[in-house]
Hints:
The chain is α+β, with helices and mostly antiparallel strands.
Amino acid sequence: MSIRQKVLFKIKSTVLEKIATPKKVSSYFGENIFSTETMQKNISKGTFAAFKTWMSEGKTISLAQANEIANAMKNWAIAKGATYYTHWFQPMTGLTAEKHDSFISIAAVGKVIEKFSGNKLIQGEPDASSFPSGGIRATFEARGYTAWDPSSPAFIIESKLGKTLCIPTIFISYHGEALDKKLPLLRSDEALNNSAVGLLKLFGHKHVKKIFSTCGPEQEYFLIDKNYYNLRQDLIMTGRTLIGAPSPKGQQLEDQYFGTIKERVVNFMFEVAEEAYKLGIPLMTRHNEVAPHQYEFAPIFEESNIAADHNQLLMELMKKIALRHDMVCLLHEKPFAGINGSGKHLNWSLSDEQGNNLLNPGKTPEDNLQFLAVLAAVLRAVYLHADLLRASIALAGNEHRLGANEAPPAIISVFLGGQLTSILNMIEKGVKSKVSKADIMDLGIGRLPKFNKDTTDRNRTSPFAFTGAKFEFRAVGSSQNISTPIAVINTIIAESLDYVKDNIKRAISTGKDFNASVLMVISKVVKETKDIRFEGNNYSEEWKKEAKKRALPNVAATYEALEALTKKENIALFERYKVFSKEELVARYHIWIHMYNLTLEIEANTLNEMVNASVVPAGYEYERLLASTLDELVRLQKGAGLKIDAAALRDKKEHLSEIVSKIYYVRKNVAEMVKLLEKAKKISNEKRAELYFEELKPLMEHIRKHVDQLECVVSDDAWDLPKYREMLFIK
Ligand code: ADP
Ligand code: MG
């Protein structure tokens, strides 16, 4: 029996104690966060007021005030059982980072007290020389600093034997350059706020104070049994299967999508939800996805920077809690070939501080007009900066989805739905020169129809789709930190909001009335950006051809997509909106290219070892079985006159030769791959990424194809690697 078969008998659900009456969520929601309310209760009025001003106007608090908050935070955490604290941040590798310190200080010889000062709250100094900075921070001045981000509440992470207070921070260099993913997001919200407030004031909302982006990321993932996972080096090392023959049953029956959730999985989901609720993460929906053993969690949307922190935390919770249920949570974009990969649909909108959604088609014609102006800004932003959107989701894992005929393609386009499309068409064709107040939307073709929240008209294949009262950026990878895509969306839309605002103002200054000016600008934008709109099937070949005609970028390779970050006009855009400096962009380009290369090298080296140490020996064993049977038969034929059908004997021989050649072929290609890796060592990172995309990946696919054929014939007894039909179909 193979190890794999032995494992089959070990697989069972974890035994859980039944909870008679689960607690009401409202009774414990947010109990592990140091919320503004908790802070308010535990500090002086003056300090709280200073804190609020800091949040809204950026006026920093004094050290004495910071000390007071730190003390309140410490007391709260210690009362809840925390013994350690950490500055929690999001380095450019996309994971989260922590360096834990104990609360204790030496009070006297052999005596300690719990202490935590404002200094330590506001600024930490991790020994962080190993985080990539892309050249911003040379190792000799290696220090990076974490600085408290008061916009996201501190929280407590529980483990079996203790609790840790986590303080959300940004991570910066000595000179203030962003070394993380979070700071640019915060800066982009500032930019968006400025631009959006400007436009709204023009529309007569004199009292609007703050506009921010909202975000609800739908998180897809796979779960597989831990026993199988432990036998797959590829999953352990790379998060995806590098080899593995397709299972006869995949997702073709679509019997998984929204199906009954297996009990084992639903228990996992309950525990994730409970832990998430304690941290104030508002999880809303959970369901089966299309592929076998693929699932999704979606939260209620929140302010983007909170949503980004919450999504990072959620991913960590999911990974941790899956293990408690003897399962492993796979967040990779493409863990299994031949079935759907995982994405993270990023639902994005704009809100004012009263909670009014700027992408909600209004009830009155005036609101409609404002909605259309914001919509026009989105269209223009995507039209002009599709390259930046593509760059914001460029990573090795996502490369398997984008352009691979399943997920949104690498061509960025916008879907608006039938209703909006026809409205825009009307505007484009028929703006009357005179538009009276009473007849605002008379475009020469009757009144503008009332907008309905249109949820039936769906296009699942569009990478940037309008879905009711928000846009859904669907091409984001499941494992990604959403901070960067949000920062890009916020910035490009800020710029277009400014464009729309400035052009309306200009039109007004020529004597046109307000409504006519707005309609004129919308009409102009609609006309100019038409090419970015596509309502059809984004996976089709026709769309690829059509997109080419329209000169829309279709960038399949990560290295090429990332180049957008270093384009002159893009650098200028980000500098103008103070989201990234040139150095920060160039650093990101280098880091992400480097990470792409490292990912591929780890994959290739893992494949090399798996082929040589697992696949080939299994092949040899089967070869031996075939050879000795053949030998025996021929001997019996000769010695004992056994009658063997000539065709049957020929078939045996052919099969053996086939196996021998296949093993040879696989080994030969793996040797080729090793040579290619050697060659890559001598060239620059940029060239290396290109080589990996153009040559290494196809070679790995080629090796895989032949290994998978072997898997289907080599005896089940000899094959130790868990198969797709097992990993994806355990109960
Ligand atoms: P859909 O049916 O389009 O998937 P849902 O209402 O189920 O719509 O929402 C899907 C995700 O979109 C959820 O995470 C939700 O919180 C988020 N979402 C809804 N409205 C907004 C908004 N105004 N801004 C950002 N995200 C939103
Ligand atoms: Mg979904």
